[in-house]
Each structure stands twice: as C-alpha cells, then as structure tokens.
C-alpha cells in the first residue's frame, strides 16, 4: 500500500468525536490536517516538516527513507488516537443501546469501527508479568487467589487435625480451680503501683531541694532494681502457671521501662531548666501526680508532662475492638491447644537426634507458630493498645509501622514495636552517642537491654535459665549488618526474605522446641 492509503482517514470515522477536540488531536499529532471532501488527507505539510532526530522506530522496513518514516510515525500516532476514540465511542453507544447493530440498534454506524485496514499493533508493549512491568500492575486478583488457597489448605489441615487428635480444647482452658494458686502473683501485680509512688516522692523531694542530685540518682536506681527483683522472687517461689508468670513479668518490664523514662526525663528537664543555654526556653521543671498516673496507664513508655489528646471516646468503636480482641484471643488459644501442643509433644529435642527429623519438626511448627505470632501482634499492638488509647484519649497511636515490608532486620526492629523503639532511642541509643560512644557499641547495648528482658519474660516463668531467648536476640546484631549489606548489594527483596525466614521459619519455632524439651527434661529430673 502507498503511504497515502495508510493516512486516509474516512470522514465517518470521526462522527463519534466532538469537532473541536478532534481538530486539536489531529493538529497536535504532528501536522495532520482535517480530511478533505474526497476522504483523503493532505500530506504536503507533513512531507515538508523537518524529520525528528530519532526518525526510525525499529519497526519500519529498511527501504523507508528518513522523511517517510517520520511521516508514517506521526500519521500512525494520529490514526491510532483517533481510531481508538472512535472505537470507544462506538462501544459505548452499542452498550447503551442494548447491543443492537446498525441504525436500528442505537443509530451506530459500525462500518468504520475496528476497520481491518487499521493496524492493531502500533506500539512496543511489555507483558504484564515481565520484569519491567510486573511491579506497575495491580495484583489484587492474585492476592484473592492466595487468600482462597490459604483458606483451602488450612481447612484441610483443620479437618486432618480433628480426625487425628479429636477436639483437644479443654473446658478449663480459660480458668480452673488451679488458677487460684496464682493469687500471690496477682497480689504482686497490684503492689507494683508502690514503685511509681516512690519515684514521685523522690522527684517531689528534689523539687523542694531536700536532696541532692547524686542522692536522686541513687534512689531511682534502688527503686528500679527492687521493682524487677521483687516480681522475679515471687514468681520463682510460687508454683504458678506459665501464663500467669509471663503476664507478671511483662507487666514488671513495662513498669521498669516507664520508671526509667520518668527518672531520666525529669533529670533532663532539670538540667535544661538550670542551664544558661536552654534548648527550649519554655522548659520548666515541675512534678504532678496526675501526669504520672496518666503516664503509667497510657500506651507509651516515654514520659512527658503532656501528650496529644483525642477529642472524645468512641464507645461503639471500643465495643467492636473488644469483640475482635475476644475472637482473635480465642483463635490463638485454639491454634495453641489444637496444633502447637500436639506437634511439640510428638517431637524430640531439635539439637539431639536426626537432623532431617529436627528440620521437619521445625518446618511443621513454623506455620501454626506464625499464625499465633501474627494474632498476638494484632491483638496487642493494634487492638489492645488502640482500645487503651481510645479510653484515655491518647492521641499518638503510631504503635507500629509497616514492619512486614522491612528491608532488613534493623528495619524490622525499628518498625514493629514503636513504644519500645522510641524508648531505646530516647534513653539508650542517643545518650550513648552524646557520651561519644561509637554507633556500633550503642546498637549492641540496645540489643543487650532487649535480650535481658526477653530472657526474664521467658526464663523466669519457666524457671529455666538456658539463655535461648537472650542468645536469639543477640544473634540479631550480626543479622542487622548482614541484611544491610545484602540490601545495598542485591536490593530490598533479599533482606525482606531473610527477615521472614529467620523470624518465622527458623527462629521462633526453634526457640519453642528448645524451651519445651528443656522444661520437660527439668520436670522429669525433679519427679
């Protein structure tokens, strides 16, 4: 075909477009004029235009000259845009008319819609799943497929588990007569309120200049140390349930972190208030029992005299979150009793015996353990902390970030537990940097504090000091630097996969098996 036949656009093809917009489309496309009365287009303007520098698009024959290629490229673009809009308009009119054809079916002339003479392939395009276009597409359908497959696979596992073990949930799962033996731990929880009052008394005395600064520091050290050692002693002395011991130790760690923040923040405020070069001229030192009481109840570990507040309490929203909390807590209990306990009981020590058997047990335990961990995160960090914030009108509710997209282990620790992260940065990391301690020792010190409290929360209720939790947290330090290097070298996906593997596939199931078998061995020796 000649070049003129390719650029001949019938006048009827433009009947679906507004004349003004059509003229702008054609004129902006590179000089194509409006069709003439005989159906052709005047190409004199195009042929005399200066060709572009990139005249060849890689799809034209070698025989085409530079000027012809430029003309054809411009005309193709004009024809494609015009034909596409005509086709779209035709489709819309056919759809609105109920699918009829011709003049009787909505007055649509289909003679010039999707003409065979119009090329169907005009641009270089990538397939949706190619490496250049896969992240530019929406994967909502694939996400729905993953959800359907996940539900189907887990439904089969539930049926298989019920057929093999039966219903394992006991009627005394939530509360039983043996729970009354844990009353010393309950009384210990109530008595923890003494320590914030003691810290407030110390701050009141220093405000009245009754004691010196070194005495204040010494008294706060005594208060915080006693607050930790007292619950540890009660837990070890009483034959309490594991869940009761974990609850007491978690509450003990939270109170200790709050007391340290209270003492450290007041010390910093006193320092700024007494210094000549104040960083903030509005800083003034005062103590208030009301602000301390609010801080001890608020979902934060960092003390400050006032917090951003929300305007009101949404009672209906709180009721819905409570309902979700009950449902997901029951789901966690179901997974623990119905899946994790049978797997753990039928396993051997992962560091003893056959290696392949140990790997199989860890992989089998990883899936239900992952579900429990995700439910725990959702229940505590999203539901419970938001409920508490709503009841107290606490405004700053950034309790976590998108840690599931963590590009490295360091990103995960900075995003998954924002109250603890802010406490570490405020009271450990940057104080070390201000004292000219290098960055790496400051990071190690922050992980050391975290490792000690992880060990306390698990080893004390188990009455078993094997340091598995401590070593597991300290093992994160080299992983931080390794995943940072891999992220810089190979991109973010490698670090994210290593994070998921170390935490969910290997780390947590291995710790569960280690503590369970060491606990069973200790009970066997005692009996």
Automatic annotation (TrEMBL):
Residues 30-108 are annotated as: Disordered. The keyword Membrane applies. Keywords: Acyltransferase, Endoplasmic reticulum, Membrane, Transferase, Transmembrane, Transmembrane helix. One of its GO terms (cellular component) is endoplasmic reticulum membrane. Pathway: Glycerolipid metabolism; triacylglycerol biosynthesis; Lipid metabolism. It is a multi-pass membrane protein. Its EC number is 2.3.1.20. One of its GO terms (biological process) is triglyceride biosynthetic process. Pfam families: MBOAT. It comes from the Eukaryota. The active site is at residue 454. GO terms for molecular function: diacylglycerol O-acyltransferase activity. The chain crosses the membrane at residues 140-159, 180-202, 214-234, 241-263, 322-340, 370-394, 467-486, 498-517. It is found in: Endoplasmic reticulum membrane. The keyword NADP does not apply. PANTHER family: O-ACYLTRANSFERASE (PTHR10408:SF24), STEROL O-ACYLTRANSFERASE (PTHR10408). Belongs to the membrane-bound acyltransferase family. Sterol o-acyltransferase subfamily. This is diacylglycerol O-acyltransferase. It comes from Brassica campestris (Field mustard).
């Amino acid at each position: 075909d000649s070049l003129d036949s390719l650029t001949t656009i019938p006048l009827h093809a433009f009947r679906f477009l507004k004349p003004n917009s059509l003229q702008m489309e054609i004129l902006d496309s590179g000089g194509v004029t409006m069709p003439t009365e005989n159906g052709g287009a005047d190409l004199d303007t195009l042929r005399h235009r200066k060709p572009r520098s990139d005249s060849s698009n890689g799809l034209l024959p070698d025989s085409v000259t530079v000027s012809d290629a430029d003309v054809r490229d411009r005309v193709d673009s004009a024809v494609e845009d015009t034909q596409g809009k005509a086709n779209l308009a035709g489709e819309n009119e056919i759809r609105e008319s109920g699918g009829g054809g011709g003049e009787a079916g909505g007055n649509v002339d289909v003679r010039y819609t999707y003409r065979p003479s119009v090329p169907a392939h005009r641009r270089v395009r990538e397939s949706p799943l190619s490496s250049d276009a896969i992240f530019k597409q929406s994967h909502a359908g694939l996400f729905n497929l993953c959800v359907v497959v996940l539900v189907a696979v887990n439904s089969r596992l539930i049926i298989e588990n019920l057929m093999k073990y039966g219903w394992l949930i006991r009627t005394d799962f939530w509360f039983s007569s043996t729970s009354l033996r844990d009353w010393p731990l309950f009384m210990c929880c109530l008595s923890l309120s003494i320590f914030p009052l003691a810290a407030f008394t110390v701050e009141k005395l220093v405000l009245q200049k009754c004691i010196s600064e070194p005495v204040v520091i010494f008294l706060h050290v005594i208060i915080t140390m006693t607050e930790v050692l007292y619950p540890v002693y009660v837990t070890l002395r009483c034959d309490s349930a594991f869940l009761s011991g974990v609850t007491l130790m978690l509450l003990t760690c939270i109170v200790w972190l709050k007391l340290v923040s209270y003492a450290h923040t007041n010390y910093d405020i006193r320092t700024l208030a007494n210094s000549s070069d104040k960083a903030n001229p509005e800083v003034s030192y005062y103590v208030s029992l009301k602000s301390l009481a609010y801080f001890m109840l608020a979902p934060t570990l960092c003390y400050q005299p006032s917090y951003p507040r929300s305007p009101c309490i949404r009672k209906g929203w709180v009721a819905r979150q409570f309902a979700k909390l009950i449902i997901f807590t029951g789901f966690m209990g179901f997974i623990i009793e119905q899946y994790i306990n049978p797997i753990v009981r039928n396993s051997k020590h992962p560091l003893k015996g056959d290696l392949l058997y140990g790997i199989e047990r860890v992989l089998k335990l990883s899936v239900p353990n992952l579900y429990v961990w995700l439910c725990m995160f959702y229940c505590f960090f999203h539901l419970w902390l938001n409920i508490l914030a709503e009841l107290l009108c606490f405004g700053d509710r950034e309790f976590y970030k998108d840690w599931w997209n963590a590009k490295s282990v360091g990103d995960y620790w900075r995003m998954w537990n924002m109250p603890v992260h802010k406490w570490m940065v405020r009271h450990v990391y940057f104080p070390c940097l201000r004292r000219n301690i290098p960055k790496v020792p400051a990071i190690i010190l922050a992980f050391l504090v975290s490792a000690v409290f992880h060990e306390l929360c698990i080893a004390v209720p188990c009455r078993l000091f094997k340091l598995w939790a401590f070593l597991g947290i300290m093992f994160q330090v080299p992983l931080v630097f390794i995943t940072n290097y891999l992220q810089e070298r190979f991109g973010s996906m490698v670090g994210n996969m290593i994070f998921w593997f170390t935490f969910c596939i290997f780390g947590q199931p291995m710790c569960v098996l280690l503590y369970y078998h060491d606990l069973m061995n200790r009970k066997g020796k005692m009996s």
